[in-house]
Amino acid sequence: MKFVFFVLCLLMSVSAVGVEKEPLAVKVFIAGMFEIGGNQGDKAGEFQHWFERYFVDTAPITVKGALSPVFCNQDGVCGSVLGMGKVASSSSMQAIVLNHQFDFNHSYFIVSGVGGVPPSQGTIADVNWGSWLIDYDLGHRWMPDEGIAGEPVFMPRQGYEDIRRYQLNSRLVDLAVGLSKDVQLQDSAEAQAYRMRYTQPQARRKPTVTVGTHIAGDTFFHGPGLSAQAQYISQLYGADDYMIAEMEGVAIAQVLSRTVGIDRLLSLRGAVNFDQGNPNETTLAHLDPAPGETAGGFAETVENIALVGEKVVDYLVENWADFKDGVPAH
């Protein structure tokens, strides 16, 4: 009798294993940070245009510990809204990457969102591919009047050397830039007029696709002084010029570096504001603009992000046999 009971239990166990679903093999994972309302049919945030392109006919997949459901289509493209800030986004990313419903062993990741741009480096509605991801924090800061006049007021803290900066795969970044550099970007009359308040040539031009360092902090830093500090940190860490201020990239990179690696990670950001006011505007006025004084161009920028990013997503899927095992050397 005990033998029969054992056999029945074994058969039940084998049967249960047999009906378990195979993990979804993810080719490309698209990570937005926030959505304004729903995923379609209203004002678009960072994920809606991706959803409308890839996930309209898909069912949500609940992941314990993640802010929002994951959506996956039949081509192996998945995506989700992770949450704003380093903690919210990275905790969602870790929950998703470690979830048994997905196979991320060959996946490419696109961190997709908006950010600020220094007027010396870019303009409203630009779309920028990150070459480096840097943490704006993880150091010591002090008030300028408590230090040496004219000297930096930031010092990196020892012990964070491996997590305060990440250089992304240059072959993958170059591929992304090459595929998307000629995309016709959206623009608006409001954004065009706003740019003219600035004197820098880069701030006044039409939007384009660029590449450079993305620096993440949990505070929205503004003003020429803090912008200069971000550039100082980028130079201190041996990275490219600071191009985009954002809140999540380096934290998501740390999660991926501990799990599946960052060789297949891309960071894609659209510029929706300048990181400082124009010459006739104080930093506080820039932070809290009067009615009619905002930058404009948000709707166009989030559309531009998807227009640029889809070139890479579609290329990877269409050429999956060449990219499944990594970015080809040539």
UniProtKB/TrEMBL annotation:
Against Pfam families, the record matches this protein to:
NUP
Looking at the keywords, is Signal present? Answer: yes
Q: Which UniProt keywords apply?
A: Signal
Indicate yes or no for the key word Acetylation. Answer: no
A single GO molecular function term of this UniProt record: catalytic activity
Highest taxon listed in the record's lineage: Bacteria
**Record organism:** Paraglaciecola polaris LMG 21857
What is any one GO biological process for this UniProt entry? Answer: nucleoside metabolic process
Protein name as it appears in the record: Purine nucleoside permease
Q: Which InterPro entries does this UniProt record tie to the protein?
A: Nucleoside_phosphorylase_sf, Pur_nuclsid_perm
> Which N-terminal residues, if any, form the signal peptide?
1-18
